[in-house]
Sequence to fold (371 residues):
Amino acid sequence: MLAAIPSSTMIHIKKYAYMLFALPMAFPLISWWAAREWGHLNLFAWGTVLFVFGVVPILDALLGQDPANPDEASQVPQMEQEMYYRLLTLAFVPGYLALILWGAHIFTTAPFSTVGAVGWLMSVGTVGGLAITVAHELIHKDTRYEQWVGGILLSMICYGGFKVEHLRGHHVNVSTPEDASSARYNQSLYAFLPHAYLHNFLNAWKLQKAHLARKGLSLWSLKNELIWWYALSAAWLVLFSVLWGWKGAMFFLGQAFVSFTLLEIVNYLEHYGLHRRKLPNGRYERTRPEHSWNSNHLLSNLFLFHLQRHSDHHAYAKRRYQVLRHHDTAPQLPAGYPTMVLLALIPPLWKRVMNPRVEAYYQGELDQLTP
Fold:
């Protein structure tokens, strides 16, 4: 259906369709309004989760894939300079802060059952997962203000170490045994997650210590940005505790846990089973589009600021989201991220769908699948 639309027309449509990111952010408010109008508070508390992981996968499959790549000569330079695209990502930061402040108020005052309270945390945390997508876009950019705004957004979900580990660790070691964010062939999500949580936290400090040592500074120097990001997270926690007591603290930590868990689930599916080959000199080959799973489904890409064109992102990390390209040579996921997250939660189903794709990709080189 979309293949018949001219590329320039599709790019123009997407320019304004990226505003769809506001829909998941607004869904907790829509759910709260619906609960007040029609009752069933504990059911509507799950509204955002049901929308993102129920409705979006269906619409994603119906709309299909996005055929448009921007022209490198005539479109990319202009699109990269347009402030409009940057403003969309920057607007997410005050928006998410407002959401979690309001969300904490609802969590601590509404008569939720345990099921409803969990649903509310999951719903707000799901939006937090989208917030990490925005933070990911911002921390990759050269401008100081975008990097710092991305760090502030990460502090709201207690994952400030991602700013260091992702840039200096994951992007250096992606699709190698040295990277805890690259899932191995036949590794289940539940084996992947604990290692990813711990390693990525510790590796951020290790990388930062080495970075500061090269400048002759101590790990405990005030130049250590991790101290500031985690101090800011602690300040948010104090604020929520002062305003809403222990329930406010539980809400803040709960939405953070859901948010960064979604991040690590997405990490799991983005590189599952893929490997960079080791060269005779002992180093790994250069990162190419072939070392990340790609998904070109239109709707989920709009919600996620093109994160699913992950193959292009890893090969060319400085490209802005609006000019990321689809590569036919990259391994392709069978669906968008919302659907793939659901598959990953059920390891036998995940392996049944993904293992044959990994094996087909390495046909003739099955030794690449050996740890």
